[in-house]
Amino acid sequence: MRQAGRYMAEYRAIRAKASLLEICHRPDLACEVTLQPVQHIGVDAAIIFADLLLPFEPLGLGLSFSAGEGPVIARPIRTAEQVARLPAVDAERDLGYVLEAIRLSVRELRGKVPLIGFAGAPFTLASYAIEGGSTRNFVETKRLMYGDPETWHALMDRLAAIVGRYLAAQARAGAEALQLFDSWVGSLSPQDYRRYVQPHSAKAIALAGAAGTPVIHFGTGTSTFLDAMAEAGGDVVGVDWRIPLDQGWRAFPDRGIQGNLDPCALFAPIPELTRQVNDIVDRAAGKPGHIFNLGHGILPDTDPDRVRAVVEMVHERGA
Question: Is 172 one of the annotated active-site residues of the chain?
């Protein structure tokens, strides 16, 4: 979950010389950043360093990142005509630099730990594309979703196909697991999720996992519709800290689970952090299929020593 980033001095040293998009476009730098948490934190898997909005570049949406404000989409999508004009995206051709970063990372890891590929889920991508950047209220997204469902489903269908094929290409490049990352889907009600999102997430997951590579289906704020997320697919479902791990797992007992430490727990005193880590491991109760992780990404000002401490706690309990 955003394992490499601003909380690591090693990453900040690279960012001082290259922009986020430059790192993504340079497989050597993306590989270096991908390996940093394995080398300096001791995590049990690497996740390829990329940005979930990279497919927006070949779609011609005008992706850029403004200092301190996150992504900016110069040409938002809000009409049927704009959806119809979207060009075809070929992962091998248009996102080949990510695939090369995966190949480099796999070679550098030499089988020590697996590499996870990832991509943004259709709803999260659609929301960025419609809003033109980050949002708190999703007004434009839901305006289109409720007001023009035909255009909404057309856009989601296009994005699902792009994402699913992109993830499948990552698996062919060497990724040993794939993660569909739906960080904004928690803004929806369970009914809206089933009606407007679930079929498209299901399509993306089916395309991604067609070759048998395991898929992790991740979202935040999803405790009210974890069962619906599991129905959409994925060998593993991610849960955040808003629901106890064992309670969340009961919604999909036949799947694996990823989660679910609150990222802010990494700022707690060690005794409290230890209590929270142990609570999650206790709730997993030794059942196969639990991937210990945060409920969302590591916050930028997190102390790397706290992250290492959690890794050591989990390894000790696992042993």
Answer: no
Query: Which domain, by its residues, includes 120?
Result: 19-35+45-252
Which of the residues 15, 172, 194, 306 is marked catalytic? 15
**Residue 210: strand, helix, or coil:** coil
26 is an active site residue: no
Q: Is 255 a catalytic residue?
A: no
Catalytically annotated residue among 51, 90, 192, 246: 51
Residue 150 belongs to domain with CATH number: 3.20.20.210
Q: Active-site residue among 6, 172, 195, 317?
A: 6
- Could you confirm whether 85 is annotated as catalytic? no
- Choosing from 7, 11, 94, 128, the catalytic residue is 128
End-to-end CA distance of the chain: 23
Residue 298 resides in a domain: no
Q: Is the pLDDT of residue 14 over 90?
A: yes
Task: Reply yes or no on whether 7 is catalytic.
Answer: no
How confident is the prediction for the chain on average, in pLDDT?
Answer: 95
Statement: residue 290 has pLDDT above 90: yes
What is the count of structural domains for the chain? 1
pLDDT at position 68 is 66
Buried b (16+ CB within 10 A) or exposed e, 96-112: eebbbbbbbbbebbeee
Q: Which of 297, 303, 236 is nearest to 269 (CA)?
A: 303
What pTM was computed for the model?
0.96
DSSP bridge pairs for 293 = 260
Catalytic residue of the set 2, 78, 158, 255: 2
Residue 3: pLDDT band (50, 70, 90) is low
pLDDT for residue 303 is more than 60: yes
**In the block, residue with structure tokens 């992780």:** 293
